[in-house]
Amino acid sequence: MRGRRPVWAALLGVVALASAACSGDEPLTTPEGSPISTTVTRVAEVNIVSADRDFSKTCLAPTPADAGTTDAARIVVTDPALLDALCALGIGDKVTAVTAAPGSVPAYLGPQLTAVPAIGTTPDAAAVSKADADLVLTTPGTAPSSKPFGAVRSVTIPAGDWQKQFRAVADAVNRSDAGRQRLAEFTTEATKTGRRMDASHTQVSLVRFGDDSETIAGMDTFAGQILGEIGVQRPGPQRVPDSFPVDDADFREAEGDLIYVSFEGEQGQKHGEEVLLSDEWLNLGASMWKRVLAVDDAVWYDSSGLAAAWLVLNDVKGSLDGNS
């Protein structure tokens, strides 16, 4: 049975500057009326990387259309996963609707895109009329959602890795040149970061906590790919494409010079907190040397695109040589 620390120790592991007593309370303010930050900065004695991240700054600056091409003014997207590319190209303001369920737009894309109407997978005539699209971007799996838009130009983005998909979206919105430039900028910065931080001499472990599981993230995961772009090394057992479970009675395969942990939802965080405070975990060298950091699972794993890649890169920039 896994060794546990007292419950009060777990409670001390989460530090918040302030919190509301209940969901109906007014935001906390100083006597002068300034808002008080409620950012949680630690979980189970582990620092959270980029805890104060401002998602309103995720999207990049606008890019111009290729010379001699027609620029779409109103874009509908049938798959929320395609929004990352539009965000990275700086044209999120052109999106007028997403044919998906409400709440399906990833939060990391910021308020501009999370505010776009989600009109369901089979939008009615009124929603189609209001979207007034002159371009519909779709994927093979969501193509039926483009049918209500009739004769409006539709482009299907084929499946592929995140860079291939980004280039396909850039081509579809007549920004092939800008797309190539944006990818080149990222690759250059990732390489520079790796050299500057001597990433090739750091072995980084990636561990995800599920409802009742611990998983080593493989090199083919989104986070694994971005670490590879930076030049970060992985511990020997983790140099495999696919993710695999780790035995919570023996965390040796999770060991590294630095361990990035993340939580799959609320239950994943609850389980993760228990593990992070267990005797088995605390016996790891990285834990003893305070070299365990928590990252945003939704950005590092559930996302896949250039905008998210920049967020992961910036997380690494600010934490590869840091302690928990």
From TrEMBL:
Transmembrane segments: none
Localization of this protein: Cell envelope
Residues of the signal peptide: 1-20
Main subcellular localisation: other
Family: Belongs to the bacterial solute-binding protein 8 family.
Fe/B12 periplasmic-binding domain sequence ranges: 74-324
Top-rank taxon: Bacteria
PANTHER family linked to this entry: IRON III DICITRATE-BINDING PERIPLASMIC PROTEIN, IRON(III) DICITRATE-BINDING PERIPLASMIC PROTEIN
Keywords, alphabetical: Signal, Transport
InterPro entries attached to this UniProt entry: ABC_transptr_periplasmic_BD, Bact_iron-sidero_bind
Name recorded for this polypeptide: ABC transporter substrate-binding protein
